[in-house]
Amino acid sequence: MNYNIFDKTAPKMPKPTKGTGFCKLLLSKASKDMHEPLVPMALPALAAHLTGVEFMYSDNIYYELCGQMGHLIGPSGVGKAQLTNLIEAIMKPFRDHDAGEYDKLVDWTRQVKTKGANKEKPERPEVSFWFPPADLTNPAFIQNAIALEKQGGRTMYLNLPEVEMADKMCGGHRQVSQTVRNIYDRHRAGALRATVDGVTGNPLLRVNITFSSTPEAARAFYRKDLTNGFFGRIPFAYKARGERKGRIPRQGVYDKEFLNQLNDYLVRLDNCKGRFVVKPMNKIADQLAEEMATLADLADDDMLFDLSHRSIFAAWKKAATLWILNDQTWTKSIGDYMIWFCYYDLWSKMQVFGDMFKGSLTETEDVSKKGPKNMLDSMEDSFNEQQLEALRTSFEKSKEGTKHQLSVWVHRGLIVYDEKTGLYSKTKAYLNRTH
Questions:
Q1: DSSP 8-class letter at 71
Q2: Coil, helix or strand for 208?
Q3: Side-chain half-sphere of 94: how many Cα atoms within 13 Å?
Q4: Which residues of 223-258 are buried (b: 16+ CB within 10 A; e: fewer)?
Q5: How far is 141 from 129, CA to CA, in rounded Å?
Q6: Who contacts 180 (Cβ-Cβ below 8 Å, separation ≥6)?
Q7: Vertex 128, ends 122 and 129: CA angle to 5°?
Q8: What is the Cα–Cα distance from 93 to 99, expressed in whole angstroms?
Q9: What pLDDT sits at residue 102?
Q10: What is the side-by-side strand order in the sheet with 156-160?
Q11: 99: exposed, middle or buried (C-beta count within 10 Å: 0-12, 13-18, 19+)?
């Protein structure tokens, strides 16, 4: 295993090296304390520049790279606004395009108002917005998705600085879950919908979306959706408050020089077309699947195992985006980032929501004490069955599951059994694992 998601400290982001030099540019204007959450949160915006690209996953099915999402969580004043600054630089070509679309609507509105009551009104122009405003209504969201599908299937990107804004976009909180699932799985909107202009349609939702919120707002937003598939589809990036420091974090300016350098990478995304199979990327997905099963066995937690499936898939999509940014060339560094994306997502979920996996309602400061735990880490290097049984009981798990858990740990090479002493001992491979 590469990282310890049960630890309070965030998994350390790999250093950008060969193949991930783009990340250096991406973070060059951000304060150092925000580097780790900004990389995974920026990739959905970058992937929105892709159209007509598919990759084969480990299940032998091709997938588009749309449907990428992210939720940045951190206390007030931690620096979440830096994401918006970075997003605006990445999406400048989208803003330029949308400005032209707004001009069309303004001109159409002017013509409608100047026509007399008995004169024929001009038809509303067919417009599509690639980066709609955060206060987008549900009818406008559907109408825009229809227009984007007609114009070649471009991806719409949304950045919502408050997670509650998703309710307005989806038509109410009850509809958020279904909409997000349709976005993630690249499904259609689900039904024929009428917009404010009477337009009906059932568009394929090619959407990338990012949210931001405090931990308290995130817990309230997802509290009823932890097990319905909606929660697991969203990768999280959690930034804790950290130590009190009497120094304002320094940020740079996304100036013309930065935008010119960034544009060289965006061109690679815009020009990429076709179907691809990146075998090293799928090999890592298979590796992560095995590691996630081990993590779930260490905690004996089914929900953690279920969440890990989509964490792997989301990390795989991010790695595919980095592969394109690296001029369609694979490097070990991209693989290291893919692994980190997966672990960082699960670690973030554990930090903010861990206690809620079992329905507890503790304060956010106590979350890490109440969520799933690596039970093997809680045991001495050598222990007996009764000690594990007592630990399971303290974690409110059944005594009957003790023997099965020991059997799984032995099978995975995490522990060995000594028949002479009746003790189980942690293996060298487990003790020397990388956190």
A1: E
A2: strand
A3: 25
A4: eebbeebbbbbbbbbbbbeeeeeeeeeeeeebeeeb
A5: 10
A6: 69, 166, 170, 230, 233, 234
A7: 130
A8: 10
A9: 93
A10: 156-160, 207-213, 69-73, 236-238
A11: exposed
CA distances to 7, 88, 169, 393 from 33, in Å:
19, 20, 31, 39
Label residue 189 exposed, middle or buried (CB < 10 Å: 0-12, 13-18, 19+).
buried
List, for residues 398-414, the tens digit of each pLDDT value. 888 899 999 999 998 99
* 434 burial via Cβ count (<10 Å: 0-12, 13-18, 19+): exposed
Residues of the chain with pLDDT under 70: 1, 116-119, 190-200, 244, 358-371, 434-435
Of 94, 78, 92, which Cα lies nearest the Cα of 38?
Answer: 78
Per-residue model confidence (pLDDT) at position 171? 87
Locate 92 and state its tokens.
């400048």
Residue pair 117/139 in contact (Cβ under 8 Å)? The answer is no
Report the distance separating Cα 180 and Cα 43, nearest Å. 18
CB contact at 8 A, 41 and 237: yes
Q: Residue 312, Cβ neighbours under 10 Å: how many?
A: 24
Amino acid (one-letter) located at 373: K
Q: How far apart are CA 421 and CA 19, in angstroms?
A: 51
Distance CA 425, CA 415 (A): 5
Contact 183, 207 (CB under 8 A): yes
Residues with Cβ within 8 Å of residue 70, at least 6 apart in sequence: 40, 41, 43, 44, 210, 211, 234, 235, 236, 237
Distance CA 89, CA 262 (A): 8
| Per-residue model confidence (pLDDT) at position 362 | 44
Measuring CA to CA, which residue among 63, 34, 27 is closest to residue 316?
63
pLDDT digits (tens, 9 = 90+) for 269-297: 999 999 999 999 999 999 999 999 998 89
Residue 326 and residue 22 in contact, taking contact as beta carbons nearer than 8 Å: yes
Cβ density class 337-362: b for 16+ within 10 Å, e for less: bbbbbbbbbbbbbbbbbbbbbeeeee
Pairing of strands 274-276, 53-56: parallel
Q: What pTM was estimated for this model as a whole?
A: 0.86
